[in-house]
Write a structure and sequence with these properties.
Helix content: 10-25%
Strand order of the largest sheet: 4-8-9-7-6-5
Number of helices: 2
Structural class: mainly beta
Strand content: 35-45%
Order of helices and strands: EEHEEEEEEEH
Radius of gyration: 18 Å
Number of strands: 9
Length: about 150
């Protein structure tokens, strides 16, 4: 099972050899300075967002790899029925979210707490993850609204 570790000034997602094969990449390494929020999500499926790009997506079994969306890409290593440690990253990082399943709630809470202690600038304004940006709702074919007359 994948693990999140702090090594020096970096957050490293260490993958097992099977997860490396499934994701078609090695361990993920991002600077701790890029971490902006750490949360624990009890429902694994809530950590999935966007469309699958590269990896293995077996519904009900495991989700490993990269998912793309309007804000960029997420890297996930998820197993159903397990809590997920979600690490939101600043736009300068290669991913916007790292989501890794933990064996149980206590290990997920311990992993999240160690990341919060190690990261220099955590946004603690809310315990929830931030929503993804939504594309402009006025797509092509929508007429422009006339400007209001000021009389």
């Amino acid at each position: 099972m994948a693990r999140m570790d702090v090594r020096g000034d970096d957050l490293v997602v260490r993958l097992t050899w099977r997860e490396r094969v499934a994701a078609r990449r090695g361990d993920v390494r991002v600077p701790l300075a890029a971490v902006c929020r750490v949360t624990v999500e009890p429902a694994w499926w809530r950590a999935l967002r966007g469309d699958p790009r590269r990896g293995v997506w077996i519904p009900g079994t495991r989700c490993v790899g990269t998912r793309g969306h309007l804000a960029g890409a997420d890297f996930v290593v998820l197993r159903p029925g397990r809590p997920v440690v979600c690490v939101e990253l600043r736009p300068s990082a290669p991913f916007r979210l790292l989501a890794v399943s933990a064996p149980n709630r206590s290990e997920a809470a311990a992993m999240a707490a160690s990341l919060v202690r190690a990261a220099p600038e955590i946004d603690a304004s809310t315990p929830c993850r931030q929503p993804l940006p939504v594309p402009d709702e006025r797509g092509k074919g929508w007429p422009e609204l006339p400007a209001a007359d000021e009389s």
